[in-house]
Write the structure tokens for this entry.
Amino acid sequence: MTPADCDLRDSKFMPMYVQALLNSGFNAMPDDTAWRAGVTLWLKAWHQVPAASLPAGDEDLCALAGFGRDLKRWKKARDKALRGWTLCDDGRLYHPLIAEAALEAWNSRLLARLNGSAGNARRWGADFDATPQEVQLAEAVPLLRALNPQAEAVKKADRRKPSAIAGRSQGQGEGEGEGEGEGEGEGEGEGEGEG
């Protein structure tokens, strides 16, 4: 549900869909131990790689859920704690709401890196190859769109022009040459300029 390189381990913040949680069957379950284990797993999944995933093995899940090595207690809470989680093709468990939040954060981070790197390249006249970030976005945006087509990061990705950012790295790109300069082009009047 998230790309293999989706890494949010340095992110101290994890969004919580409060209404979805409060109105869920998970929140309504009477087993406090399983509820605590489930929420703990959501939080632990945020800092796994890929983000929003968990290993599928009971020993790993037992430790991540806060049961230490008490597999007997873990197995009692397991099914309730893992409510909503899906085993995916990579052999890891994913929760759709955690994956959506992680993809929103990951896509926003990728767009910020791409725009910042392109801006720095323009500013310093350096070469910048946008291909790695473009490839990451090409993988991550459709995954988020599948979970939430109205996500803000999807809208931002749809508004941008990938070729414009990539083209800026090798020469003058969209918007370059406009704005404030070092005294060149000041004043008004009609004259011939570069198109």
